[in-house]
Design brief:
Elements: H1 3-13, H2 16-19, H3 45-57, E1 71-75, H4 80-95, E2 103-108, H5 118-128, E3 132-136, H6 142-162, H7 166-174, H8 185-209, E4 218-223, H9 232-235, E5 240-242, E6 251-256, H10 264-274, H11 299-308, H12 310-323, H13 333-351
Parallel strand pairs: 1-2, 1-4, 2-3, 4-6
Antiparallel strand pairs: 5-6
Helix pairs in contact: 4-10, 6-7, 6-12, 11-12, 11-13, 12-13
Length: 352
């Protein structure tokens, strides 16, 4: 058993759950939107400077009326950001006097492609706060989906060739089956779509128990632990918005990013404050813990992941060979494994 597996075993099976204490955050600071510089356009220059400084230093925290929602859905991936978000949201709900039965923790289980023990850890976090836990998953995991996607692209290419469209057929034939930063079906299919199915089930349950909501949409607040510091693309996401794709005649869904403006240090501070264990992949040197081989990870992180999960790296390599495309543009799993092996030999030489 690896040190990573041993750490997970201690967390999940070591009786820590009974020792954990729930800590509600009874106070929090709200920064209101900074005044626009335009208001001071014709005022003295010192006021302009003060307004500009105020805008740059004060972060905007979205005010959300938590009591207006029937259900509050917290997405817990098992990673540090969603873990910190869960503690934060529970604290806000406790401070607002919201019953915890209205909070549901959901984990999108990615199966073999996510770090071992992730689902168990997310469930442990939920139970520590006495919250309902739901795990959702796609019938076909990510690696199987890559294989199915390759087959679908080839079938489409065959059809186009039969129709006398060789150029279009070639594009289908050469299209990569792997997800990418511009085609993140790993998120849309494996996570978002599965959570929407849970929403459907929760609405049915809620209406059964609360007949008064039959005559209006059930209001759901969907909370995600995304932070703008993570990437330029994420920094452009709205902190709060109506989720039109999830909203229908039976439910109204708002999407909220409660820790959107937090720094990494704030995240770890909240985790330390909670007293709840985090995934040992972080202690092993990984900056994030969800998919072992995330397409958004850099080369060093992927090489480390291959050292920690060599058997999964081998499965990715087999899928690469089957679909005829690299796992990541410019960086194949074959190369990642090669670098991982070289790094492991180097480490052994240093300790010899």
């Amino acid at each position: 058993m690896s040190s990573l597996d041993s750490a997970l075993s201690r967390i999940v099976n070591g009786g820590q759950l009974e020792q954990l204490k729930t800590k509600a955050v009874r106070s929090f600071t709200v920064h209101r939107p900074a005044p626009s510089v335009r208001r001071f356009k014709r005022r003295p220059r010192d006021l302009l400077k003060r307004a500009s400084l105020f805008e740059s230093e004060v972060s905007r925290v979205m005010l959300v009326d938590l009591s207006s929602y029937d259900l509050i859905l917290v997405n817990e991936s098992g990673g540090k950001d969603s873990q910190a978000m869960l503690t934060h949201v529970v604290g806000l709900c406790d401070a607002a006097g919201i019953d915890r039965w209205r909070i549901v923790v959901v984990h999108a289980d990615l199966g073999r492609v996510e770090w071992r023990g992730t689902r168990e850890l997310a469930e442990l976090h939920a139970k520590a706060y006495g919250l309902r836990f739901e795990a959702v998953s796609r019938s076909e995991d990510l690696l199987d989906q890559v294989i199915s996607r390759r087959a679908a692209l080839d079938r489409a290419a065959d059809k186009l060739e039969a129709e006398g469209k060789p150029d279009e057929a070639a594009k289908k034939r050469n299209a990569p089956a792997w997800m990418s930063m511009s085609a993140r079906y790993c998120t849309s299919d494996q996570k978002t779509s599965q959570v929407k199915k849970l929403m459907t089930r929760l609405v049915v349950e809620h209406r059964t128990r609360n007949p008064g909501t039959v005559f209006r949409p059930v209001r759901i607040l969907n909370c995600l632990g995304l932070r703008k510091q993570e990437s330029p693309a994420r920094s452009k996401k709205p902190e709060f918005e109506v989720d039109k794709s999830a909203t229908n005649g039976k439910r109204h869904v708002d999407r909220w990013l409660p820790i959107f403006g937090w720094s990494t240090e704030q995240v770890w501070s909240k985790i330390r404050q909670s007293g709840l264990p985090h995934h040992p992949a972080y202690d092993a040197g990984m900056p994030r813990a969800s998919c072992v081989f995330c397409i958004g990870a850099g080369r060093e992180q992927l090489v480390l992941a291959a050292r920690l999960h060599p058997e999964l790296a081998a499965e990715y390599l087999a899928v690469e060979q089957r679909v005829g495309h690299s796992f990541k543009p410019g960086l194949s799993m074959a190369r990642i494994i090669e670098l991982s092996s070289a790094a492991q030999v180097g480490t052994q030489d240093e300790t010899a």
